[in-house]
Specification:
The complex is a heterodimer of chains A (115) and B (115). Chain A is mainly beta. Chain A contains no helices and eleven strands. Chain B is mostly beta strands and 115 residues long. In chain B, the strands form two sheets. In chain B, strands 2, 4, 5, 6, 9, 10 and 11 form a seven-stranded mixed beta sheet that branches. A four-stranded antiparallel beta sheet of chain B has the order 1-3-8-7, with no helix packed on it. Classes of the chains: A mainly beta (115), B mainly beta (115).
Chain lengths: 115, 115
């Protein structure tokens, strides 16, 4: 079983719609979660970090965390063509109860926002 | 703002050459990472350095070595480049400060082609 799972997509949404990206993880003790955006040919850029259950909003982006169900979501409101990219979910790798400093990345979901 | 820079955006080398990829961060981060990213394989960790002169093998260290003589600089070395090392190479850094989310921040990447 993969430790961090994402639907590879592509997820296609019309401009102005809400895009919903999902990520599940296997380590029940995970405490922090990250979303990165990666444009084609570019490097990953951190867009959201979340620690606590519930929602965290930053502009058009909302991260939702549900530790009991072991999933974290990223919602993009009013999607724009410039949001078209691959979105990577990442969870810290742990050894026992300690954080190793490394991240486990999902394979990423490709989002296409159509004008 | 965190800044991670990499010595080259594009690099073309010949089989058997020794290749140096340099990464510099300006945020006094303790941890630094080298990844490679290939289509369909996602981000794979090559080496990790948790502090100066300290390193740990990642998931795919074969054919690579690293050097961290100064805190801000982390070098990836391909001792004898091979065509299967053609890839996008990404450097990242991370702080261990307790008042931080401890996210990783990526450099722009180096697209290496080995002919």
């Amino acid at each position: 079983q993969k430790e961090v799972e994402q639907n590879s997509g592509p997820l296609s949404v019309p401009e102005g719609a809400i895009a919903s990206l999902n990520c599940t993880y296997s380590d029940r003790g995970s405490q922090s979660f990250f979303w990165y955006r990666q444009y084609s040919g570019k490097s990953p850029e951190l867009i959201m970090s979340i620690y606590s259950n519930g929602d965290k909003e930053d502009g058009r982006f909302t991260a939702q965390l549900n530790k009991a169900s072991q999933y974290v979501s990223l919602l993009i409101r009013d999607s724009q063509p410039s949001d078209s990219a691959t979105y990577l979910c990442a969870v810290p790798a742990r050894r026992g109860s300690s954080n190793t400093g490394k991240l486990i990345f999902g394979q990423g979901t490709t989002l296409q926002v159509k004008p | 703002d965190v800044k991670v820079t990499q010595s080259s955006r594009y690099l073309v080398k010949r089989t058997g050459e020794k290749v140096f990829l340099e990464c510099v961060q300006d945020m006094d981060h303790e941890n630094m990472f080298w990844y490679r990213q290939d289509p369909g394989l996602g981000l794979r960790l090559i080496y990790f350095s948790y502090d100066v002169k300290m390193k740990e093998k990642g998931d795919i260290p074969e054919g690579y070595s690293v050097s961290r003589e100064k805190k801000e600089r982390f070098s990836l070395i391909l001792e004898s480049a091979s065509t299967n090392q053609t890839s996008m190479y990404l450097c990242a850094s991370r702080t261990r400060r307790l008042d931080s989310y401890n996210e990783q921040f990526f450099g722009p990447g180096t697209r290496l082609t080995v002919l």
